[in-house]
Amino acid sequence: MKSVSQNLKYILLLLLFALISYLSLVAVYHIASDKSSFLSLRIFSKGMFVQLTVLLIVYFSADVLRFYFTLKAINVKIPLTYMVALAFVNIFVSNITPSATGGGFAQIYLLNKKGVSIGAATAGSSIRTALPIMFFTICTPIILIFDDNIKRLLPGSNFGIYVAVMVAFDLLIIWLILGLTRKPEKIVNIIIKIRRSFERRNLKSDSKVFVFLDRLADETGKFSEHFMMYIRGDKRYVLLSVLFSLTFLMALFLFPYFLIRDLNPAVSVVDIVLAQIVITAVMYFAPTPGAAGIAEAAFVAMFSNYVKQSYIVSLTFAWRFFTIYIGVLIGLVVFYIQIMKKHEKFDLYK
What we know:
Strand content: under 5%
Distance between the termini: 18 Å
Largest sheet: none
Number of strands: 0
Order of helices and strands: HHHHHHHHHHHH
Radius of gyration: 21 Å
Structural class: mainly alpha
C-alpha cells in the first residue's frame, strides 16, 4: 500500500504541473495572442530544431558534469553513469514540487543510498545549487539597474524596491555561507532552539520532526567541513564545476534566442540573454511547481514584442518543451526506475 500511495503522490504532482502548464498556455492564448492560432510548431524551420537538439545535449551534459565535478571537489566519487540518473531525477522532482524544493532532497537521498553521508551529499547538492544562485544574485541587480528593456517585466515604478530585495537576498546568502563555514555551531544552536520549541508543544519524541531536526543538527558540522573542502579543494575540480555551471546556464539562456531568431532574424542575442537571466532568476524562486504559470507570464512579458502575436503561444510552448518538458519526461522514467520500481520509500526523515 505504501508504494501505491507514493506512486499516487508523484502522479498527482505531475498532473498538477501539467495542468498549470496547460492553463498557462491557454492564458497566453487569450491575453497575449491574436487568437488566430493556438499551437503550431510548423512556424519554426527544421534547421532550428537541429540546432536546439545539439544545444539540448550540451545543456543536459553540462547539468550532469557540474554536479559530478562538484562532488569530486569534496572527495565524493560517484560513477558518471549514476550522475546522469541523479541529474534527471533532479529535473523531474524539482519541476513537480513547489519552489523546486524536492530535487535536491531526492539527490541527497539517492547519494545516501550509495553510501555518501548526508552531510557530504547536502554540501554537494547545495554547492551545485549555490553556484547559479550566486550568478543570479550578482548579475540580476546590475541588469535591473542598467537595462531599460527589463522594466517592462516589472509592474509599477518602484524599481528601487526590486533592487533592494535582490541586495537583501545577497546579504542573506553571504550570512548563511559565513555561518556555515566559520561558525556552524550557531546554525546548530538555531536548530536546537527550533527543536525545543516543538518540545514545548508536547510533540512525541519519536516524531518525524524531531528525527529530522536531530539529523539536521548532526549533519550541519559535516556539511561545513565539506563546504570548506570544496573551497580549499582540488582547483581543477572546482574550476570545472564552475565552468560547467556557466555552460549549463548559457545553454539555458540561448534556447529562447534560437527560437526567436528563427522567427525574427534581426533579434539581438545580448537583449535576449539579459532578459532570460532575469526570467530564470524569477523562476528559481517561484513558488509554483516548475515555476509553471510564472515562467510563461515572465517569458511573454519580455519577448512578445519580438514576434507576431500569432506566434507567441507556440514560441512559449517550444521554449518550455526544450528547457523543461523533455527533461521532466526523461526524469519521470529514471525516477521510476531508481525509486518506485525498487519499492523504496522516498523519505528523508526515516
